[in-house]
Each structure stands twice: as C-alpha cells, then as structure tokens.
Amino acid sequence: MNDQDTAVDTRPTKIMYVAEATAHGGRDGYVTSQDGQIELKVAMPPALGGDGNGTNPEQLFAAGYSSCFHNALILVGNREGYDLTGSTVAAKVGIGPNKHRGYGLAVALSVSLPVLDAGVAAKLVDAAHEVCPYSNATRGNVDVSILLG
C-alpha cells in the first residue's frame, strides 16, 4: 500500500469560488486578476539574478498562505471558544532547485497566539493545518514547518 492509498482526500466536494489571474511576461512582466483587484509588476528577486523591481510569485504565495492559514486558525479558535486577539501568521516561502531538474518550494509559517497558553495554541495550530486549503494543497509536495512563538 502506498501513500496514495492511505491519504485523506482533501479535494473540494463543491467549488464555492474561483479566483482568476493572468500572467503577462512570466517573472519579468505583470499579473492581473479578472476582477481588476490585482495589477502588479513582477520581477525576479536579486537572489535569483533579477533587479527586484516588482513583487514575485513567492511573495504572492507567502501572502496567500499566511492569510489563509490565519483564517483557518481563527475559524478553529472560534469553534472552540478561544480568544485570538492579536494573533498573526507570517509565511516565508523559499524556492530552489530540486533533484529532478526543476524547482521546488519550502514554507515556514510563524504563528503568534499571544493570549493563549502553549498547549492550547499548539492544538489550534494543528487543527488549522488540517483545515487550511493551502496546507491541504501542499501536504506531501512542499516541506511546511510551523513555528509557534
């Protein structure tokens, strides 16, 4: 039996919303969203040989993952009746070559739950990691570490 046979199916049973975005020019161009809310210049970061004169896909992924994970954390916290005042989630997304002549990502989430004790905070973070769509999408594909501080 392989991991596919024992993995929990996290695919949606119903699509409730579809986001649309279009890239123009790859990593040295711009991105737009269908609704006009996003119109951003993208550029390679200096660490990858670019001028850094724009955002990049890793920053956008970090923004999406951190906000999604924080929302999942708020959801599970509210379900359990906990106060998440002042809580934050920061994400770092790294990119680098993989063993298959392509590139891969690694994610580090830093979660702050200042008004909760460590045991409760850890329980909520674990639950949020099961609920968050980004966590479900990356599980098994991307190394995700979570630091609770």
Automatic annotation (TrEMBL):
Gene3D superfamilies: 2.20.25.10, 3.30.300.20. Transmembrane segments: none annotated. Signal peptide: none annotated. It comes from the Bacteria. One of its GO terms (biological process) is response to oxidative stress. Belongs to the OsmC/Ohr family. This is Organic hydroperoxide resistance protein. It comes from Streptomyces muensis.
